[in-house]
Amino acid sequence: MQDIVIGARPLAAADVVAVARHGARVRIHPDALAAVAETRALVDALADDDRPHYGISTGFGALATTAIAPADRTRLQQSLIRSHAASSGTPVEDEVVRALMLLRLRTLATGRTGVRPIVVETYAALLNAAIHPVIGEYGSLGCSGDLAPLSHVALALMGEGEVRVDGVVQPAAEALAAAGIVPVVLAEKEGLALVNGTDGMLGMLCLALADLDRLLDTADLAAAMSVEGLLGTDSPFAADLQALRPHAGQAASAARIHGLLAGSPIVASHAGPEDTRVQDAYSLRCAPQVHGTARDTAEHAARVAAVELVSAIDNPVVTLDGRIVSNGNFHGAPVAAVLDFLAIVVADVASMSERRTDRFLDPARSHGLPPFLAAEPGVDSGLMIAQYTQAGIVSELKRLAVPASVDSIPSSAMQEDHVSMGWGAARKLRRAIDGLEQVLAIEAMTAARGIELRAAAPGERTGAAIAAIRERVPGAGPDRFLAPDIAGVRALVASGALLAASRIHELDPRLAPATADAHGRSDR
């Protein structure tokens, strides 16, 4: 895997995933280090100025009017980090810590924060050594940056606090010594520069977008399998119908579902005048509209992330013309809002998935399938309780969809009197995405069994997905321990193997047939 060179080009969300999840190493471009050194000279010039400069010769937050003598300024920076490393609760995941570290390092390397090159280089060394500071889940209000989480990283940079190396918690001083890293003694401005960013919530947004890229395709695949297994029709997914309401995400999902069902003998088996049903239930017919809304929301969130990834967030910040100015760019509102938007659409996609699953299990709506898809209904319960599991998760996802960003609790003696709660929005989105993955796995597992109970064969792509499931999970039969089946299909969803089997990525909506406009005119 290639190194991520910070300062050579703008960082992309894919870079965040590469470092956070796949252990890619980072390097700092020489030009970036030169810019850092140049900016640091401006901070050093202000250190002896008689006028107060926030974070250089003053206290922090509500203590910004307190002057700090030169002899106490190193202690000031150390005190800031020690006091702000105040998180609590279950430690966050290593991938989140790595994403947070990478993004703070990127901002430090912009030359707009005023730190010394040694701070940037040591921070990179910490990340490359896979030394992950232990950060509790609670402590950030998403304003003035993710203060507590970033402070735990800065504490490790000082050789203090606890870190995880290969999953083992140990003192930071021991981990740094083992890696040959010399702890940093912070100078003026550096404590603030290390903690004043939205890096935690942005890192979790980048990871969530990568997950949703996979899961929204999985939702389309599961929906196609359910349409097939429930004897639905593929006609609502035609490109000309989608063009009458030309949302990009809707068109993409419809094209995928339509393509997955192409050539399906099951779909063909009940097409024609002998099928008296006029239209399918909403959970089948309207899948592109719901999945597409999630796609469009993710696209909007990706645009917000892209802006954040080229931003230099610190307070005060060193401007391009050399001024050191206080500002409000650390407020997490832009990121918090899209994190909440995503939690809402995740809940909606999962809710529709659960409704499709439930239709398979009810003989009044499954069009000829046995109750609960059981081998011997009454003796066997089949997949009855798998739907209970889905229902419990979906109920939780609805609670997680309540926005965090509408809340604000003042802090720092009312100096920080409006906060974004973006970190909390990111944490609940991670839980929501985990739930969506499980819900979609259960739908795919259920649809596979339902399709296999039909007389006709599935389509080529859905059949390949079922074959992949059967390599991991047995088919219908007497009741057995069901949790391992769910876990097995979930693993296929998580790895992307289920999508790969269906070759869904070949179904690019740009390759769809000619469409009609809102007046029914063809584009040909």
Automatic annotation (TrEMBL):
EC nos: 4.3.1.3
One annotated GO biological process: L-histidine catabolic process to glutamate and formamide
Main localization of the protein described in the UniProt heading: cytoplasm
Catalysed conversion reaction: L-histidine = trans-urocanate + NH4(+)
GO molecular function, one term: histidine ammonia-lyase activity
Keywords associated with the record: Histidine metabolism, Lyase
InterPro entries (alphabetical): Aromatic_Lyase (IPR001106), Fumarase/histidase_N (IPR024083), HutH (IPR005921), L-Aspartase-like (IPR008948), Phe/His_NH3-lyase_AS (IPR022313)
One Pfam assignment: Lyase_aromatic
Protein's UniProt keywords contain Lipid biosynthesis: no
GO cellular component: cytoplasm
Record-linked CDD domains: PAL-HAL
Family: Belongs to the PAL/histidase family.
Name listed for the protein in its UniProt record: Histidine ammonia-lyase
Annotated organism of origin: Agrococcus jejuensis
